[in-house]
Design a protein that fits this description.
Blueprint (H helix, E strand, L loop, with lengths): L2 E18 L4 E14 L2 E7 L12 H17 L9 H4 L7 H19 L3 H5 L5 E3 L2 E3 L5 H13 L4 E5 L6 H10 L4 E5 L9 H7 L7 E2 L8 H9 L4 E3 L6 H9 L5 E4 L7 H13 L4 E3 L6 H10 L23 E2 L9 E3 L9 E2 L1 H6 L1 E7 L3
Parallel strand pairs: 5-6, 6-7, 7-8, 8-9, 9-10, 10-11
Antiparallel strand pairs: 1-2, 1-15, 2-3, 4-13, 12-14
Bound molecules: 2-succinylbenzoate and magnesium ion (MG).
Magnesium ion (MG) binds next to loops.
Length: about 375
């Protein structure tokens, strides 16, 4: 199978509400959409690199540069027998997993379409519906947070994640727990703390959290292992796991008891699939993370979440929580029981609205073999 062209759409979409993490407050998303044409069949994907290097070191501009100048020349020269070969073919490029994943995921979608299968089936998925949770950003007041949580529970979500940062942590968690004693609750710190904060996390043990996501440094495993020894609540790594080998190391050193899997962060769907399998062999459950994706990336996440070890509700939520305008039809919908039905049509199984993409596009380029 040969990649014949890669079309890159650079897009900006306004969010309905601001989203605040420990590192930034955003009101729009700036990202890339790819069309990867493989032997005449086109697959769509979304590159989850952000405008600024705050979640990871990649950005929209680094992704454009690396896609154009390094990834495209390599993939155009190959004849692939399977999508699993795409990421290994790029091993001479250090890092830039989000840029690599964008091509790999577009290839996977084209591959599934060629076979007339859903992406879930092509990946080896075993679920026809997935459990959905929500990630709620830092708010301007605790009252605002409590009313947001109330709304999400009313919409059917079965797991609530709240973002924390120094100054918006223990007291907020205490108030949420007092108001909602029985919900599945977790926190995500996006690397805002250090081992100086062990006492804070020990105090969090009192609130029956499902897990604490990425409390410490964005590349760290060692300190996370030290923290895990001193607290009862499971640690879940997000930022620190970039590959199957990273997942193995984190598990071997007991730095993580749960893993947030994001295909973009780990170089694509093959790597995400391998990580969930390795984790299963060590009784480590995983769940699918989110990067405020548009419908295209969201659809990929829906299919990825059907793999067997995605046993916890993920951050794959209803399209309506995110952008003023969505790029797919139908939109991703969460039902009143908190689940999403997985489409069984070919590939992602949603229709991409190309006119809508053109409307929000700020650049457009087509890469072909030279
Ligand atoms: O850490 O999981 C994260 C969004 C952007 C960057 C990082 C993260 C997030 C989320 C939102 O938590 C998940 C979503 O609803 O897409
Ligand atoms: Mg996270």
């Amino acid at each position: 199978m040969k990649i014949e062209s890669i079309t890159i759409h650079e897009v900006k979409l306004d969010l309905k509400n601001f989203f605040e993490t420990s590192f930034a407050r955003v009101t729009y998303e700036h990202f890339l959409l790819l069309q990867v044409t493989v032997d005449g069949v086109t697959g769509w994907s979304e590159c989850v690199a952000s405008e600024s290097p705050s979640y990871s070191s990649e950005t929209v501009q680094t992704a454009l540069h690396v896609l154009e100048d390094f990834i495209a020349p390599i993939v155009f020269g190959r004849d692939y027998a399977h999508p699993d070969e795409v990421l290994p073919s790029l091993h001479v490029i250090r890092g830039h997993n989000m840029a690599k994943a964008a091509v790999e995921m577009g290839f996977w979608e084209a591959y599934a379409r060629t076979r007339g299968e859903s992406l879930s089936k092509a990946l080896g998925g075993t679920r026809t519906k997935i459990a959905s949770g929500v990630s709620i950003g830092i708010q301007d007041s605790v009252d605002q947070l409590l009313s947001k949580i109330e709304g999400e529970l009313a919409d059917g979500y079965r797991r609530i994640k709240i973002k924390i940062k120094p100054g918006w942590d223990l007291d907020v968690v205490r108030q949420v727990r007092e108001r909602f004693p029985d919900i599945l609750l977790m926190v995500d710190a996006n690397s805002a703390y250090s081992l100086d904060d062990v006492k804070l996390f020990q105090e969090m043990d009192a609130y029956d959290l499902m897990m604490i996501e990425q409390p410490l440094d964005y590349h760290d495993m060692w300190d996370h292992a030290a923290l895990q020894k001193q607290i009862k609540t499971p640690i879940c790594l997000d930022e620190s796991v970039h590959s199957l080998d990273d997942a193995r190391r984190a598990i071997e050193m007991s730095a993580t008891r749960i893993i947030n899997v994001k295909a973009g962060r780990v170089g694509g769907l093959s790597s995400a699939r391998d990580i969930q399998k390795l984790a299963a062999e060590h009784d480590i459950p995983v769940w699918c993370g989110g990067m405020l994706e548009s419908g295209i990336g969201r659809a990929h996440n829906v299919h990825l979440s059907t793999l067997p070890n995605f046993t916890l509700p993920g951050d794959v939520a209803d399209s309506k929580r995110y952008f003023v305008e969505e790029l797919i039809e139908p939109t991703v919908q969460v039902r009143s029981d908190g689940t999403i039905q997985v489409p069984d049509g070919p590939g992602i199984g949603y229709t991409v609205l190309e006119d809508r993409i053109a409307k929000h596009r700020i650049s457009h380029r087509v890469l072909t073999p030279s």
